[in-house]
Amino acid sequence: MSEPVKVSNRASSIEYAIRDVVVPAIELENQGHDIIRLNIGDPLAYEGLPTPVHMIEKYKNALDRQDNGYGPSYGLDELREAISQSELSKGWNCSPDDVYVTHGVTEALQVIFAAFLEENDIVLAPGPHYPPYMAYPQMYGAKTVEYRLKSSEEWKIDLDDISDKMNDSVKLLVLINPNNPTGNIATESEIDKLINIAEKWPNCTIIADEIYDGLDFSDNFISVASRSKSVPIITLNGVSKVYFAPGWRIGYMAWHDPNNRLRLVRDGVERILRSRLCASTPAQYGYLAGLRESKDWLDKHRKLTEERMNFCLKRIEEIDGLSCESPKGAFYLFVKLTNLEDQRDDKKWVLDLLHQEHVLVVHGSGFSPEFGSGHFRMVCLPPIPVLEEAFQRIERFLSS
Fold first, then answer.
1. Domain 9-49+296-399 is classified in which CATH homologous superfamily?
2. Are strands 332-337 and 233-238 parallel, antiparallel or unpaired?
3. How far is CA 208 from CA 43, 105, 195, in A?
4. Measured CA distances, 24 to 14, 181, 195, 226 (Å)
5. Phi and psi for 150 in degrees, rounded to 5?
6. Angle 204-17-186 from CA coordinates, rounded to 5°
7. Which of 25, 61, 336, 338 has its C-alpha lying 20 to 30 A from 85's C-alpha?
């Protein structure tokens, strides 16, 4: 057999814990086992949380009128206007020209990293965090350094840790708010202090990942861009989570640049966006309907999500070996394994649970080797009977 073609280091080093654990789950399903999947934040995989009908109708209407060709590279004008109005309502002066529509937030991140990062640059991101913040910067010769979220204090931001890790190489400072996987929401004071730290480093831009902003159970969510008078902020959001349409792959980045420091980087971003043509045209019309039409449906979705989350928290309290800081937003629980002898064995624990009890969760070290180990992440989206069955299996696994 001939020698295989060598894979690039940038590809072989990528890990995505949320989907990597699916591989052994599929093998078990192929053997006939029923797997309760609590690993991925896809509301459409669970009963009771559908994409709003009026959004689907507008998506279909676009297809029916053959409006599915190439669109503008930065997004449909009407959608950019609607997004700018949405951001304006959060307290900052966002114009349509500040908005770029992308293939989900994931593409927005890839474009931002490509435009900002050079060899040895640093992305300072929270630990724990959404895995692409660790996976993608290294593709551009940069690296991710994590700042600590305090696990025993409702995952509050460790501002001293951020200050200690800031330097001239930090090009991007990331705030995921509400956070995936912990569900913590930054307070106004935390946001202001974060901005004050970044203000001391003129090369630093803040990424504000706010994809879960509408799933705030604390009523304390504050737009980061609304608090900055000088530091550039790139807000990320989209249709996936709050509008319950993850497969549409429509996101956006909205640029707040009070002193016009990012004009060269924006030129680079626009060049990249033009070279990849455009985001899905009909899906953009569906998102437009979500932004422009009534959001009364969201109250029901939010209430149902919160009920399921509260059920999970109650069951976690009842099980010896588990504990969890109460999330303030999103739809995840980042559960601590209190009886795990070696915190680094969280992935083994997750795989053992999968093979013995056929419940699929994600190891916490997949979200941060340093700050997430000894935990697992689960979604609280399934109906309560499914969640109860999952917890019965987990309880049996722990007692064995």
1. Aspartate Aminotransferase, domain 1 (3.90.1150.10)
2. unpaired
3. 23, 11, 11
4. 18, 22, 42, 44
5. -80, 105
6. 40
7. 61
Q: How confident is the model at residue 312 (pLDDT cuts 50, 70, 90)?
A: very high
**Could you give the CA distance from residue 365 to residue 114 in angstroms, rounded to a whole number?**
26
If we measure between CA atoms, which residue out of 149, 209, 211 comes closest to residue 372? 149
Amino acid at 17: A
pTM: 0.93
CA dist., res. 120 & res. 138, Å (int) = 9
- Nearest Cα to 302, choosing from 48, 111, 120, 34? 48
192 CA to centre of own chain: 22
- What are the beta bridge partners of residue 216? 329
Whether the bond between 50 and the residue before it is cis, its omega within 30 degrees of 0, is no
Name the CATH code of domain 53-292 (choices 3.40.470.10, 3.30.413.10, 1.10.3660.10, 3.40.640.10). 3.40.640.10
Q: Would the pLDDT of 194 be above 90?
A: yes
The 10s digit of each residue's pLDDT in 46-104 is 888 999 999 999 999 999 999 989 999 999 999 999 999 999 999 999 999 999 999 99
Cβ atoms within 10 Å, residue 318: 10
State which amino acid sits at residue 104. G
Query: How big is the CA angle at 174 (ends 304 and 132), to the nearest 5 degrees?
Result: 75
Tell me the C-alpha distance between 302 and 242, whole Å: 9
Q: What kind and span of H or E run contains 335?
A: strand 332-337
Buried b (16+ CB within 10 A) or exposed e, 144-182: bbbbbbebeeebbbbbebbeebbeebbbbbbbbbbbbbb
Q: What is the mean pLDDT of residues 197-203?
A: 96
DSSP 8-state symbol, 3: P
Q: How far is the C-alpha of 142 from the C-alpha of 153, rounded, in Å? A: 31
Q: CA 239, 41, 152, 197 torsion: positive or negative?
A: negative
Tokens representing 147? 């700042």
Which one, of 137, 375, 90, 390, lies nearest residue 242 by Cα? 90
d(CA 236, CA 87): 11
